[in-house]
């Protein structure tokens, strides 16, 4: 059975639902209460009502009502979609990232066709599973990486769909002819590596195992080539409120200046053959570098080294400045600034059958929700 398939998209009709800019939302796991309130105010049809409802039944009710009102319309014929995201990263560099949106067959990780790289936790999976049971629709695409070439876009063809969310512009082109579909899907190389959406993938797999039918056998995914110039990973730093462990012994420690910017710059120059991180405290900063490199795929990762310190009360931020501010204000006892793993390191971990600690990778930007939906009925 084919790993990838086209699908009949369920998508917004702007004539009824309004501009797509007001309808899209980020994935559920980055929707804060403040952002949810802003998205709810943007439109009564915003996708956040589906992906982050008060109760799963609320999402199912909204989905049915929107379809009945014509705010969501279903395409008659299957297609795949070419996706381009235009964005400026946290480093201030403007980039574009291209991919393919299609259905991916749900496979257990043991089959070696779809591979994870991060650990998952029961509560988020249970929440996503309850939502799937209620809506029977794939609401958000899983972000996956493949080893084939990226799609070529026709510069003279305007996109069929376009939306901007939080400074990221997503553009989509529909490919519906059989030869075009075969060419697009044939360029995607396996195995597929989950970049973002582990909890949603595992919830969908469990839902399919419960259902047992072919209709629930696929998940919606955005697939990006590992060779794409716009595929970037940014770090997620750690903050703690509790005890700060002693770093003597396995680490060579170098005092640094007090500023986070200087600390991040110095950390970036540390050799990548072994883990390193910066410990920020109110009395200054320390660069900690492992004295030796381990032999395993996980041993060279900064986040693994910090995770092995067995920290308590850990919170996360993508901003080193925010981490520094939390320490300076006393909101955090200390912060651990880390480097993002490389794509090669992520692949090595996945292929070795290992998983990284939570929040080890920040593939930016995340794929928007609300551009395309895919009901479980094909």
Brief sketch in words of this structure:
With 378 residues, the chain is an alpha+beta fold.
Instruction: Please give the share of residues in helix.
Output: 25-40%
As an assembly, this protein is single chain
Rg is 22 Å
Give the CATH architecture of the largest domain.
Alpha-Beta Complex
Total discrete domains:
2
Main beta sheet: 9 strands, mixed
In the CATH hierarchy, the third-tier topology of the largest domain is known as Conserved hypothetical protein from pyrococcus furiosus pfu- 392566-001, ParB domain
Q: Poorly predicted ranges (pLDDT <50, ≥5 residues)? A: none
Quick one: CATH superfamily of the largest domain? Conserved hypothetical protein from pyrococcus furiosus pfu- 392566-001, ParB domain
- What is the helix tally? 11
Output mean pLDDT.
Answer: 95
Q: What is the tally of beta strands?
A: 21
Q: What is the 3D shape? A: globular
Sheet/helix structural class:
alpha+beta
CATH class of the largest domain: Alpha Beta
Proportion of residues in β-strands: 25-35%
Structural description of this entry:
It is built from 11 helices and 21 strands. The protein is an alpha+beta fold and 378 residues long. The chain has 2 domains: 4-232 and 364-375, Conserved hypothetical protein from pyrococcus furiosus pfu- 392566-001, ParB domain, CATH 3.90.1530.10; 236-339. The strands form 5 sheets. Strands 1, 4, 5, 6, 8, 9, 10, 11 and 12 form a 9-stranded mixed sheet that branches. A 6-stranded antiparallel sheet has the order 15-17-16-19-14-18. A two-stranded antiparallel sheet has the order 2-3. Helix 4 (56-69) runs parallel beside helix 5 (122-135) and helix 5 (122-135) packs across helix 7 (198-211). The model has no long low-confidence stretch (mean pLDDT 95).
